[in-house]
């Protein structure tokens, strides 16, 4: 079956204030975990899910993202044929396999608004949304791949969720629903950043969505909610009430790289992983000799 999800939208206009001063002149999506910027992890996850068109909603001061997914002739020229050339292998491969399109969110009016800004890049088709500061890793399939599989079965909007400590509900969109298969919930309620006392559950939305294109009209009708911003969570609740929205407890782990704590945890995790991978490679190479 061909992949019904052809495009992935990356809302990337936010200021990244929690990482100031690092994010003063550098987009937060370009902060590296080891040597790779957060947004490249996201693009690679989308690619692994069979999605080749990346639609990026940027803002002022975000040009480095476009430059990252482009050829740097001077750099290529300098290191071609040298021992350093392999450092560019991964990003070259991403650039070759994907197309990138960009639009700007002129005013910061919330995640729902950012997604609506991407409408022209997406068109009338189901699409994925990936928030690059939620960095995910899984020993089997990537989170977006898991969600694409689910979309093929249910053909409706899907949000990824995970269990969080109840006291953290005011940092996330939180859902409530009926579990129709293990780990798959039919959404009945959805609230943006509720206080723990009123949160409908401890199942938090993380930055992976598959959305059907009727969401654009719903967002247009959605009034500003939490923080005076247009929330995708509110639009999705409307969609759930009109039809069906699923919430999916993904397999794998997720790091909140929008926080210093999560960023450091991600760095340690990927560092340990890279050491293990190097050792495995070394063993393989020795075996060949
Ligand atoms: C956004 C969404 C929220 C979701 C979160 C996941 O919030 O509005 O529903 O739980 O992403 O990271 P933000 O973190 O941008 O404030």
UniProtKB/TrEMBL annotation:
Keyword list, A-Z: Nucleotidyltransferase, Transferase
Stored CDD domains: UGPase_prokaryotic
GO biological process: UDP-alpha-D-glucose metabolic process
Swiss-Prot/TrEMBL catalytic activity: alpha-D-glucose 1-phosphate + UTP + H(+) = UDP-alpha-D-glucose + diphosphate
Domain named Nucleotidyl transferase: residues: 12-268
Alphabetical list of InterPro entries matching this protein: GalU_uridylyltTrfase_bac/arc (IPR005771), NTP_transferase_dom (IPR005835), Nucleotide-diphossugar_trans (IPR029044)
Stored SUPFAM superfamilies: Nucleotide-diphospho-sugar transferases
Manganese as UniProt keyword: no
GO molecular function ontology, one term from the record: UTP:glucose-1-phosphate uridylyltransferase activity
The protein's Enzyme Commission number: 2.7.7.9
Key word Nucleotidyltransferase present: yes
Protein purpose: May play a role in stationary phase survival.
Annotated family: Belongs to the UDPGP type 2 family.
Name the record gives this protein: UTP--glucose-1-phosphate uridylyltransferase
Organism of this sequence: Aliarcobacter cibarius
